[in-house]
Amino acid sequence: MVFFIGGIVIVVGLLIAFLAASSADTGYGVAAAANAQSVATAGVEDALLRLDRNPAFPWGSGVSQPYTVASGSSTASVTVTNPSSAGQATILSLATVSGHTGKISVVISENPVTEQVSIISWTNVQ
Asked: Distance (Å, rounded) from C-alpha 54 to C-alpha 64?
């Protein structure tokens, strides 16, 4: 009887330990995914700022050289492409934090007269 009750106590203890560890890991994963998304957002915002300050930034070259943007201890890889002659470009920002990836694609346009940059679409890519 003592072995039976002892075995039940051990099984219940192991189950509680497993659930606690699983819950902590899930919480950390959610935080890492949110952090990756915010770092990718910082990359897009940096590209928008560069486009606003230097209207010739991606234009004429077709594709800008990928560059990195630091945000805290993480970085985002940012590429700006100019696929059309209509003054539109696509910003792609990719960040990975602890195995979780945040990826954002933003299509923008530039008014050739005022050089004002406008966001056409903002998509979180899965």
From this structure: 13
If we measure between CA atoms, which residue out of 99, 84, 86 comes closest to residue 35? 99
User: What is the Cα 123 distance to its own chain's centre?
Assistant: 11
Residue 98 makes CB contacts below 8 A (sequence gap 6+) with: 28, 29, 32, 35
Each residue of 79-116: b (16+ CB within 10 Å) or e? bbbbeeeebebbbbbbbbbeebebbbbbbbebeeeeee
- Position 21 pLDDT exceeds 80: no
What pTM, to 2 d.p., does this model score?
0.71
pLDDT tens digits, 47-67: 888 887 876 666 555 566 788
For 2-125, which CATH class? alpha beta
